[in-house]
Amino acid sequence: MGERYASTMAIPTRDPKNYTEEALKKLPGWFYQFRFSNGATSEVVDELTSVIHQTRADLIFPFLDDFFGERWDKIRCLDLACHQGWFATQVALRGATKVQGIDIRNEHVVRALAIRELGHLANMNVSQRNLYAVTPEDDGTYELTLFLGILYHLDNPLEALRIVRSVTKKLCVIETQVARSSPELHCLWGSGSPRKGPGIAVVHSDETHVAGSRSVVLVPTLDALYQILYAVGFQRLYLSIPRPDMYEQFACFDRVVVFAQTG
Questions:
Q1: pLDDT tens digits for range 75-111
Q2: Which residues pair with 168 in a beta bridge?
Q3: Which of 29, 200, 226, 227 lies 20 to 30 Å from 262, alpha-carbon distance?
Q4: pLDDT in tens, 113-150
């Protein structure tokens, strides 16, 4: 593979290139570039989108490959809000014993399942679910959970991360936009002493990404994200440090990847 794809894998297939290309064209609107070993690729909206996704992969998978090493075949992964299943596919290709993706939008699930079929990925499945309905009792727990590109589209990020922690056995990967840091906010507290803490931005939602009627979403600063992750029960946090030449939002820490361990 070339340097650009060093952290991602092509989907192996014995099908002819034209067969795969025709199958992909039947489902327009690909948001991710799925690459197949026969040379077929899904056509994405624009080049910048591919650069952003590849940067996310470059910040995530080298850490995961080092962390799990030769144990991928013992790892179960839950990808919450998996979109079209691009990251779930990359985990499945590494040999994880089970990869379960969930997403609230049917059009995303349909495309993720198409990739599963084209790649003959028997260890991967995707279903239409609301992440707020996930429970360890119904869904079990997973050594690895992915929570990528979704936190900043939510109006209740604290509850979402509580749910994520409840189904994470070892490690969760959070990738999200964060609000730019500012001095701590102060507030009075009844008859007690004033309190202070890091801030959370309240911003207008993007109807393209938010399911249901949500007029605002809450975007924490990085410090606030750390505090929330500790509060819901994660024990150790690691920030992925981008190279200076990576996509600007990551290089400037307006968008971050955090690895959260349970113990």
A1: 999 999 999 999 999 999 999 999 999 999 999 999 9
A2: 142
A3: 200
A4: 999 999 999 999 999 999 999 999 999 999 999 999 99
